[in-house]
Amino acid sequence: MMQDTPPGKPRRSFVRESPEQRRAELIEAALELIGEGGYRAATVRSIAARANVSLGLIRHHFSTKEDLINAAYEAHMSEMTELSLALADRSDLAPKARMASVIRASLSPPVMSERNVTLWATFIAQIANEPAIKATHDRTYLEFRDRLEDLISQTLAAEDRPATPLGIRHLALACNALMDGLWLEGGACPGAVEGADLAAVGLEKIGLILGVDLSAGGGAA
Predict the structure, then answer these.
(1) Count of CB atoms within 10 A of residue 157's CB?
(2) I want to staple 97 with a disulfide (CB 3.0 to 4.6 A). Which of 39, 77, 174, 218 is the partner?
């Protein structure tokens, strides 16, 4: 008969936590395990052991392991997006300053890290087999790209260089691809780019794509 508490771990003493806190702990445990040992390391038992909870608690919050893993992926992507866009809506900053802030945040720790690239690559590898993971990927990607399009539109308008919606879409695709590439370089091969300021590279090259000087980051609105 399967034990409800993972072996080798004492049952967690009772602490009154909100459902949101408990879900967050389970999600973080799943992310830790995936980051350390890959997708297969995040079994229900290993997640329960890492979070020091019973298997029943996982079943209470998530219908299936796939639901938990997808929630972990969504949390991971949402956190990176929030960190990257932290200053994107600051009304006291000029549009190009906000654009520069997104580039800097995306190409600097904590967003750019070996752990984040490892997690991202692990989840991406599941897209072909996990419809829920694919749906989360598509949605979070489009959410970020839509925000980037809006910021590019504002930046060009402030420079008196408005563009068509299709033109903005093409610029967003190019800028996002460049940021993704630099992010992968910095996170996957930190030793190979040691000493390189990838944020500065991103500001320079995306500035060339947009035809806007982003090196100074702009100023107050």
Answers:
(1) 12
(2) 218
For the segment 83-112, what is each residue's pLDDT rounded down to a tens digit?
999 999 999 999 999 999 999 999 999 999
Residue 141 identity (one-letter amino acid):
Y
Vertex 171, ends 166 and 187: CA angle to 5°? 140
Q: What is the pLDDT of residues 105-115, one digit of tens each?
A: 999 999 999 99
Residue 146 domain-assigned (yes or no): yes
**Per-residue pLDDT tens digits for 36-69:** 999 999 999 999 999 999 988 999 999 999 999 9
Nearest-5° Cα angle at 204, 163 to 169: 30
The parent domain of residue 178 ranges over 74-210
Length of the chain: 221
